[in-house]
Design a protein that fits this description.
A hairpin with a 5-residue loop joins strand 6 and strand 7. By secondary structure, this protein is of the alpha/beta class. Strands 1, 2, 3, 4, 5, 6, 7 and 8 form an eight-stranded mixed sheet that branches. It has six helices and eight strands. It has one domain: Nucleotidyltransferase, domain 5 (2-Layer Sandwich). The longest helix is centred in the last third of the chain and has 18 residues.
Length: 230
């Protein structure tokens, strides 16, 4: 059986107006089917999200940014930003349903999704889309999947209508075991994080069992952060 050539994109997400922020902007790395990688200049992809009308159009823009030509290959993209809000937070805002008691910071159901609470038990300290300064990035990522990959294949996995694009969420700080290539040692941290995301996308495409798998009791709208298991 012929192995299908796939591309793996890592996207470290900047805020909606990150073109005005020198320290944090959108960064994109693409790992090609032969294992080599390319990256583009840090910028703001907001106008891409506004301009593209189809999944193919947005993928073409990602490829063009990295001097590549897209020819309808399958693509897996791993995104470094929350792709959901907690069920408790959504219920509080939409339905005035409260959760109590509220105790420890890391277990606060309004601030952290179950996937983030899980990572805290593993010794990591993921950020909160509600409490920390990543709310804009979260809405940008959710906007992306809602427009270009709206089908929820399973918990933490989204697909485009044509199934050419698969999207997952990851967290570079919890995947530091992935080695940064020597050629990226001197580039901006955003690009290094995007490389880790791309490497996670590739591992995900090859074997999902390399990761901590989603807990069964999680609402699919919360999503799941894909982190390599011990």
């Amino acid at each position: 059986m012929t192995k299908i050539a796939k591309y793996y994109i890592g996207w470290d997400v900047g805020a909606w107006n990150c073109d005005k922020n020198r320290s944090s902007r959108d960064a994109i790395v693409i790992i090609k089917p032969d294992g080599t990688f390319v990256y583009g200049k840090r910028n703001n992809v907001r106008e891409w999200l506004n301009t593209a009308k189809t999944t193919k159009e947005i993928v073409i823009m990602f490829f063009y940014h990295c001097d590549l030509e897209y020819n309808n290959e399958e693509v897996i993209i791993a995104i470094d930003t929350p792709l959901g809000f907690s069920e408790a937070f959504v219920n509080l805002v939409n339905n005035n349903i409260i959760s109590e008691p509220i105790s420890d910071f890391s277990s606060n159901p309004y601030l952290f999704r179950k996937t983030e609470q899980f990572l805290y038990t593993k010794g990591f300290q993921p950020l909160s889309a509600v409490n920390h300064m990543i709310g804009a990035q979260a809405t940008k990522g959710i906007h992306f999947i809602s427009k270009f990959a709206p089908n929820n294949e399973s918990l933490g996995v989204w697909n485009s209508e044509d199934e050419k694009l698969t999207v997952i969420e990851t967290y570079p700080s919890a995947n530091k075991r992935i080695e940064i290539p020597a050629s990226l040692q001197t580039v901006h941290q955003d690009i290094q994080d995007a490389f880790i995301c791309a490497a996670i996308a590739k591992r995900f495409g090859n074997d999902r069992n390399l990761f901590h798998l989603p807990l069964k009791e999680i609402n699919e709208k919360e999503g799941w952060i894909w982190v390599l298991s011990d």
